[in-house]
Amino acid sequence: MHPWKKKFVVSQLALACTLAITSQASAFNDISGTNYTTFKHYNDASYADGVYYNGYVGWNNYAADSVYNGDIYPVINKSVVNGVISTYYLDDGLATNANSNSLTIKNSTIHGMITSECMTTDCAGRDATGYVYDRLALTVDNSTIDDNYEHYTYNGTHADGSVDTHVVDVYDLGTAITLDQEVDLVVKNNSHVAGITLTQGYEWGDIDDNTVSTGVNSSEVFHNAINVTDSTVTSGSWSDEGTSGWFGNNNNASDYGGTDFSASGHAGFNADDVAISAIANPHADNAMQTTVNLTNSTLMGDILFSSNFDHNFFPSGADSYRDTNSAVDTNGWDGTDRMDVTLNNGSKWVGAAMSTHQVDSDGDGVYDSFAEGTEATATLLDVAANSLWPWSTYGLSNSDTAYNENGHVVGNEVYQSGLFNVTLNSGSRWDTTKTSLIDTLSINGGSVVNVADSTLVSDTISLTGGSALKIDEDGHVATHALTVDNSTVMIADDVSAGWGVDDAALYANIVNVTHDGILDVGNSTAYAMQADTLNLTSSTDAGGKVHAGVFNVHSNRFVLNADLTNDRTNDTAKPNYGYGTIAMNSDGHLTINGNGDSDTSFDQSEVDNAGDNVAAATGNFKVRIDNAAGTGSVADYKGKELIYVNDKSSTATFSAANKADLGAYTWQAKQEGNLVVMQQRALTDYANMALSIPSANSNIWNLQQDTVATRLTHSRHGLADNGGAWGSYLGASFSGDNDTISYDQNVNGAMLGLDTKIDGNHAQWIVGAAAGFVKGDLSDRSGQVDQDSQTAYIYSSARFANNVFVDGSLNYSHFSNQLSANMSNGQFVDGSTSSDAWGFGLKLGYDRKLGNAGYVTPYGSVSGLFQSGDDYRLSNGMKVGGQSYDSMRYELGVDAGYTFTYGSDQALTPYFKLAYVYDDADNNAKVNGDSIDNGTEGSAVRVGLGTQFSFTRNFSAYSDVSYLGGGDVDQDWAANVGVKYTW
């Protein structure tokens, strides 16, 4: 068993000259509720002139179970302590001692620090009691340890009046908590600690080493546990903070300077920026392993992890006792050091994660500074690789091969003396600074790592559960394998990147994106991401839904100098059906060059090429167009190249993932050889609505035209009609489809009319006027149009003695339309348009009487509506040209009915209608400069039933329903219900 003082613990010489143990043991050394200073000046008959230390904590038992006593009872509550508290004499380790090796700070402020070091010149040895192997339980509860007590000063006078002054410097003793013993440290309940420094102060020694037959390896581990809950840990200070300041305000221990490892002049890093450090002893035979768990807490400062190979480890190998030859065949023994940092429950960390090892910079046999990275070896004799080396491993000359391996890259696997792992869970966040070098980074549960103005190097990086890795300006991330699972890696548009590997915003040998994960390169430069293989793949859930990884290039013209791969097929019947998704805007472009490697499995010329797919792209992919725009003509999009695979041997398949609204049409991706281009599809919802409006206006007008025609038909049948006042409710449902536009329309409205009968020389006339007020609702998919129309009619009917009649009408209409729709990207679009229209109707028929009550009326009619409207734009920029829209309707049909009379004042006339209708509306509209057919025409059949009932000679009511179908517009149903008062 070997305890020792650490060389890098700050020197105690300044104290040793003046301090001595003050064994003023008291049964009442509880300082709770008081202000207490651990240093005191004495100059009296009992004590020589000097500064004395009174800061050792101890239980102060005087029985056989106690060896050493202390100055302070180790439960401190509601106190203010100035100075340095030492745990050196806290527990003697004897079996008969029931006191726990624990120190509790509660509801207090320690203006200074806690150390495990001896603070005086004549500290008694503790080894025989086993003290150094007894773990310390240190609890900081709702308390502050600020590490800001830097000097004890005394300025007084001697009895003779001469100056009596003393200064004890303690700023360089460590941070707020500085320990060289194993510890279970709990910081909780809104506590604040300015720095935690842990060193390996003792060991369990091996017996000899692995090259000796009697060698026995010690399996003991020097373990520390730090648990921080609802609290804050900041950097501490090893410097005199009072030597500089701004406007008279000097620095604090918790201030973070941000000096990078490579730029620092203090032992290879800025010690004053370190919040937590775990420094393994190079002379130890055991591993030092530290776990740090933060829960709903803040860490402001760097984490420093230092690891060297154990004392009995041989990085270059040694000859073991196991055989009789002298061959180098063993690496010896090494317990792997570890630093495992976990952030939970929304914890936040700002700082760097530094992996280092101690070095002897001047060759005097004393470790005196630090170098980047833990110690590592690629000579793996009887140890297995436990990590990857960012700077690669290189071969040595081998006389058995013709190839000269010396100086050539042969791989990346090494055995490291220590591993540094960082995990973020449940919405935690890490903002990196400086240069971080770790082994694994796991980002889980909605957590976020932001890398800006800094560098992060990790052997592997994995993201799960909606987490994010954001690389912003001057941020650099390098890893061997990056896995993005249901999470996002985003490279900002303004990242700084160069062609060199070190200059890439993101460097990764292998990038795996799956299960709705997203790799978003934004509008960064092509070389912002450098990779060898991009594996863009998918998973399938129990319901058969594919969850694909996404590579999003936005509007970038991105060049992928990596192989694009997955092992998925487009055959839905196969178990490996799936795909990766490539997302981009319509103005984006992806060139896939591949990594340029060829398979060199048969030789050693390039070790990373072994097993390379050769082809630049393999597997199955879908291409998603993300943006939507109302602007742009067909020529702007048709056939536009989205992806170019710069490899004719590529076997990758590409298909459309979606349809995007661009201009008037939807577009999707289509593979053509080694190209993927844009393919035109149907109208967008908003264009469909805009182009359907004129046809829908015509439907409203035709319904009103039918209502006026019904009024004139009623005047010829039933009881005598001398003209009068009438009112009708009209409603209908239409569905239109001309293979370009399509819609459903519901119409409701009313018409009011007034007319009179005039006897002419050759005919009886009905002359009148009417007004119509109708609202319509036009829809298709997300498209919606609210319609409002007003119409003024004049009409007449002439009935001749031979029962031939002629009906005619002229009208003016005004249509107002409010359009809305959703675009393919979810954007809401709206617009409004209004138009004026003139129309006419002309009907010629013959009333053939069947007895005194029946009739059959063959007829023919023609009507026309001529609309005009101004240009307008939708909110998304789509321009619709002035829609002059003409529609003509030709109809041949027959009405038949029979009048039942009930006395002289009441009558019932049911009737039936059958007609052939031809709509002629060959129209085109300009949208973004393109001419698009929006005319609705074709032949149809009308069938209708109705009845008119006269309650009195002057008052009657009527109703009818009809269906019209067969052309581009079907009238699924129409109804007309009204009343009439006859003069």
Automatic annotation (TrEMBL):
Residues 1-27 form the signal peptide. It holds the Pfam family Autotransporter. The gene is ehaB. InterPro entries: Autotransporte_beta, Autotransporte_beta_dom_sf, Autotransporter_adhesion, Autotransporter_pectin_lyase_C, OM_autotransptr_brl_dom, Pectin_lyase_fold/virulence, Pertactin_virulence_factor. The lineage of its organism: Bacteria, Pseudomonadati, Pseudomonadota, Gammaproteobacteria, Enterobacterales. It comes from Raoultella scottii. Residues 718-983 form the Autotransporter domain. The keyword Electron transport does not apply. The keyword Ligase does not apply. This is Autotransporter adhesin EhaB. Keywords: Signal.
